[in-house]
Design brief:
Elements (H helix, E strand, L loop, with lengths): L13 E2 L3 H27 L4 H29 L1 E4 L3 E6 L5 E6 L3 E7 L2 H5 L2 E8 L6 E7 H17 L6
Antiparallel strand pairs: 1-2, 2-3, 3-4, 5-6, 6-7
Length: about 170
């Protein structure tokens, strides 16, 4: 591809849905709650280690709460996506940002997924699988209807795109 239709690295235009912030925050809080509860129960049951187990529970809780307060808003500012007739563009990450492009001719499958928390927040994830060794591109935090429409659009675009002979 040359000229106007060239696939090049550039910032994707679309932000994820604002509800993704609450979804990410909930994921972090649930992930934090499991070890905190286990440590607290063990601390209540094991007298000789009570202090250290409860201290560890408090440290994990503080770290998890701090991450839940900080990272989701940052991820919202960083995560971007875009689909054109030529490619899928995704930018993700917090400390290490990753920009990926999947030309339509390289896309093998398109999946739309909605986990339990995503369903609660009416969100969805579109996964675009290519032959790349880096793995699939994931566009997380989309409105569930947009995710379904995007999955259908990508499927139609990839079916209409001739395969890449290179």
């Amino acid at each position: 591809m040359t000229g106007e239709n060239a696939v090049r690295l550039r910032p994707p235009r679309n932000a994820v849905d604002e509800r993704a912030v609450a979804w990410w925050r909930s994921q972090l809080l649930v992930t934090t709650a499991v070890p905190v509860v286990i440590l607290a129960v063990l601390g209540a049951l094991i007298g000789p280690a009570r202090f250290w187990l409860l201290l560890a529970a408090g440290a994990v809780a503080a770290l998890g709460l701090g991450c839940a307060a900080f990272f989701p808003a940052w991820w919202f500012r960083v995560h971007r996506w875009e689909v054109t007739d030529e490619a899928v563009y995704v930018r993700t990450g917090a400390l290490w940002q990753e920009w990926r492009i999947a030309p339509m001719s390289r896309i093998q499958t398109v999946d739309t997924v909605r986990g339990p928390l995503e369903q609660l927040f009416r969100l969805g994830t579109v996964t675009v699988t290519t032959a790349s060794s880096k793995g699939a591109l994931r566009i997380e935090g989309l409105d569930h209807e947009l995710a379904a429409e995007l999955g259908e659009r990508l499927t139609a675009l990839t079916q209409a795109t001739p395969g890449d002979a290179t």
